């Protein structure tokens, strides 16, 4: 089994990030929370602090199955400025490996040219940064190797979609039932 790497910076949106990480871990996936800042403690957009599992500089990502970008501001802007992460995203995309982003974070993928001719969604107001994308009004969109979502209100659907992609529909349905999603 490979690993999901979730990238965090100060100003991340807590619900989007924690919901995705929690849902993926419920599916038995190894999720590593990675700080892209020199400090392994990051502060969320609503003042929730988090001790990350590892720092970006200490990872080689050889076992990565999915790269996950939570939204929130200025967290997404900080992720976008991290050259190592940008290079990793480009490499991952070139190999057709899964990438997921929610809220403002799909704009990072758009600015890297990774959404060209793909259906994608984002938090309202960031659409102009989804360069070349076919912008969708849907809350969660998967097109090829890239999954995007609009924000906190669809965080559980986003997490379940990632489980579906990595573990299958049965695992996603089992988790949805267990957390009483959609009841």
Describe the structure.
With 183 residues, the chain is an alpha/beta fold. Helix content is 33%, strand content 23%. The protein is built from 6 helices and 11 strands. A 7-stranded mixed sheet has the order 5-2-1-6-7-11-10, sandwiched between helices. The protein has a two-stranded antiparallel ribbon with strand order 3-4. Strands 8-9 form a two-stranded parallel sheet. β3 and β4 form a beta hairpin. α1 runs parallel beside α5. The longest helix is centred in the first third of the chain and has 13 residues. The model has no long low-confidence stretch (mean pLDDT 96).
Secondary structure elements and pairings:
Blueprint: E1 3-8, H1 14-26, E2 30-35, E3 41-43, E4 49-51, E5 54-55, E6 64-69, H2 75-81, H3 83-94, E7 99-102, H4 106-111, E8 119-120, E9 134-135, E10 140-143, E11 146-149, H5 155-167, H6 169-178
Parallel strand pairs: 1-2, 1-6, 2-5, 6-7, 7-11, 8-9
Antiparallel strand pairs: 3-4, 10-11
